[in-house]
Amino acid sequence: MRRALVLPGGGAKGSWQVGACQHLIAERGYWFDVVTGVSAGAVNAATLAQAHDPDELSTELDHLRCVWLGLRGNHDVYRRRWLGALGTVLARQASLYQAGPLHGVLARHIDPSRVATSPIQLRVGYVDLLSGTYRTARNDHPTLVDAVLASCALPLVFPPVPLRNGTELAVDGGLRGGPLLSDALRALAEQPSSREEPDEVWVVTPHVLGRISERPLSNWLWVALRSLAVATSQPFPDGIDHAPESHVARPSPLNIHVLHPRTELRGPSLNFDPVKLQAWYEDGLRTAREMEADPLAVEAM
Fold it and tell me: What is the signed CA dihedral for 16, 21, 22, 23, rounded to 10 degrees?
């Protein structure tokens, strides 16, 4: 059986994903041939993609849990720029916050050389502002840590990240979340398969499907972000994209499982309070243990 893990974004609520993955990887013993992610999901995906075998995957999951639960607050992830929103306007700053601390965390905990040689196929999504297109960083991306940082760079909140010698100006891949699942399907279809069992895709999202759980940081910022998202996004129902069949190589047959919170995870996505991170992690683990997800059967066309 081939198996893929799809990790959408969620800011600090990415700790919920780690809890859910604790059940899938450590308790069920699942191995994932493909891992895709955007934003906080990209951080989780790139860390897990350092594994070379099932034992290392469990070790990387422990590593990831320690990173998340070791955060002491927002200052470990980002710092507020001088004058905040006023400085963004008057000083023509690119963002409200600077992401230097997050870059440091990523550089310490993601080893691109290990990802490059891992059998797990990694796909990290980001959006190039210069072309307006969704891009994917793979295992061998020349500046993988920067690509993961770019996938977390919510416009106006964090600055865009130059990639590929400045030919791309990259921001949060969650702005166009549609390709995330199709990326996983393409990568999964490229893997060897015995075809004896249906392939599986596990979508682990920290958001209740069909509901908008994010709270605006402020009215002007919410309007700006929503406008940008509407201008660049590819909508998809219930958090799962349905790309045109001609563009997706679907394994056959395929079971898609979706894990998500039973109720909205309350609290801002940029609040990295240790108590909240622990609570969200525990909720993810508990929910994954309790949920009997009904798979969506997908047959190739």
Answer: 110
How far apart are alpha carbons 236 and 129 in whole angstroms?
21
Residue 170 pairs with which residues in a beta bridge?
128, 161
**What residues have CB less than 8 Å from 296, skipping those under 6 apart?**
240, 255, 256, 257, 258
Condensed to tens digits (0 to 9), the pLDDT of residues 103-137 reads: 999 999 999 999 999 999 999 999 998 988 999 99
Distance CA 278, CA 200 (A): 29
Residue 276 phi, psi (nearest 5): -65, -45
Residue 8: asked if its preceding bond is cis (omega within 30°), the reply is no
pTM for the model: 0.82
Q: Quote the pLDDT of residue 94.
A: 63
What does the alpha-carbon distance between residue 115 and residue 88 come to, in Å, rounded to a whole number? 36
Distance CA 71, CA 76 (A): 6
Element (DSSP H or E) covering residue 259: strand 254-259
For residue 141, give the nearest of 166, 172, 112, 120 by alpha carbon.
112
What's the N-to-C CA distance of the chain in angstroms? 20
Helix, coil or strand: residue 137:
strand
Chain CA centroid to CA 192, Å = 25
DSSP 128: E
